[in-house]
Write a structure and sequence with these properties.
By secondary structure, the protein is an alpha/beta fold. It contains nine helices and ten strands. The protein folds into two domains: 142 residues, ATPase, nucleotide binding domain (Nucleotidyltransferase, domain 5, 2-Layer Sandwich); 167 residues, ATPase, nucleotide binding domain (Nucleotidyltransferase, domain 5, 2-Layer Sandwich). The chain has a five-stranded mixed beta sheet with strand order 3-2-1-4-5, sandwiched between helices. It has a five-stranded mixed beta sheet with strand order 8-7-6-9-10, sandwiched between helices.
């Protein structure tokens, strides 16, 4: 039958389940939570309650779409962290029960490691380029911004990360200031395509080494708007495309500068983007332009694998299964994980 892994992802507000067989994706089901949009961000208590409602039908649908029987499943992999503790508890508890009920191994997965390994998801009938080891990954999401040297499927080293806000968080918070709905990143990207990325300048952080900072940019953006609105109460409405384009350009420039520096320091020329912000069109274009200049080989994840999904958890679980890395049933979720 081969190795069949059920993956479960519940780190934030998306409930997802996926089936991977011998490294090939058979199904990937995601249930989104619309309830948070009116609050301008994810409400943890609401998220965990909706996960409880969604997890059984989502897992059931994933198994049926994959066309596998319960007896065929080799192991269940779940997101242990990082993420919202209440949300993680739902996925962890379900995975434990599933593991005990079928007497199959339990595999804990680092959510960030899953984002990186999304590049290794295979689909039948599709030729997908995959990086070879070692390579450099820029992981950019709503909660994390990291530069990672990926030495093997299960050996990774963080060489730079945000010391405050993540890039995705900066997108969402600045969008909220402009009155845009949550999540703000994709909306800013949409408006930015109609604007001038050099229309406005904001304060950029000066952080040593390979670490990132976005809180200063966010503050600069806030003060800039405050002063402009004093002069013209309709400033945001009149300049929305240019504001979005300029903000996006600033964030992308911060990310690209550190990526170039990391590539030079490590000597790595294979670059892989990961995480939700890896879907941003300006970031993808900037990295591809840099690839021409610095002779990089760039790997861009499929858009469906950039946001939180169980396919990346299942593929990580597959490689952990091959290595014999299993969890015990007294394992607990962790909201913050320093290592990857």
């Amino acid at each position: 039958m081969g190795i069949v892994i059920l993956g479960i992802e519940s780190s934030c507000d998306d409930t997802s389940a996926a089936i991977v067989k011998d490294g090939f994706l058979l199904s990937n089901v995601i249930a989104n939570q619309q309830v948070h949009q009116s609050y301008g961000g994810v409400v943890p208590e609401l998220a965990s309650r909706v996960h409880q409602q969604n997890i059984v039908p989502v897992v059931d649908t994933a198994i049926k779409q994959a066309g596998v029987a319960l007896k065929d499943i080799s192991a269940v992999a779940f997101t242990r962290g990082p993420g919202l503790l209440g949300s993680l508890l739902v996925g962890t508890s379900f995975a434990k029960g599933f593991s005990i009920g079928l007497n199959i191994p339990l595999i804990d997965v680092n959510h960030l490691q899953g984002h990186v390994l999304a590049h290794f998801i295979k689909e039948k009938g599709k030729e997908l380029d995959q990086p070879s080891f070692p390579f450099l990954s820029l992981l950019v999401s709503g909660g994390h911004t990291q530069l990672i040297v990926v030495k093997s499927y299960l050996e990774m080293e963080i060489i730079g990360q945000s010391i405050d806000d993540a890039a995705g968080e900066a997108f969402d918070k600045c969008a909220k200031v402009m009155g845009l709905p949550y999540p703000g990143g994709p909306i800013i990207d949409k408006f930015a395509q109609q604007g001038n990325p050099y229309a406005f300048k904001f304060g950029l952080p000066q952080v040593s080494d390979l670490d990132f900072s976005f809180s200063g940019l966010k503050t600069s953006f806030l003060y800039f708007l405050r002063d402009k609105i004093k002069e013209d109460s309709d400033f945001i409405t009149k300049n929305l495309p240019d504001l979005c384009a300029s903000l996006q350009n600033s964030i992308v420039q911060i990310l690209l500068d550190k990526l170039v520096k990391a590539a030079k320091l490590t000597g790595l020329a294979q670059i892989a983007l990961a995480g939700g912000v890896a879907a941003n069109s300006a970031l993808r274009n900037a990295v591809m332009q840099a690839a021409n200049e610095y002779k990089w080989q760039v790997f861009l994840p499929q858009l469906s694998y950039t946001t939180d999904n169980a396919a990346m958890i299942a593929i990580t679980g597959y490689y952990k299964y091959l290595a014999g890395h299993f969890a015990t049933h007294n394992i607990s979720p962790i909201s913050r994980i320093k290592e990857i």
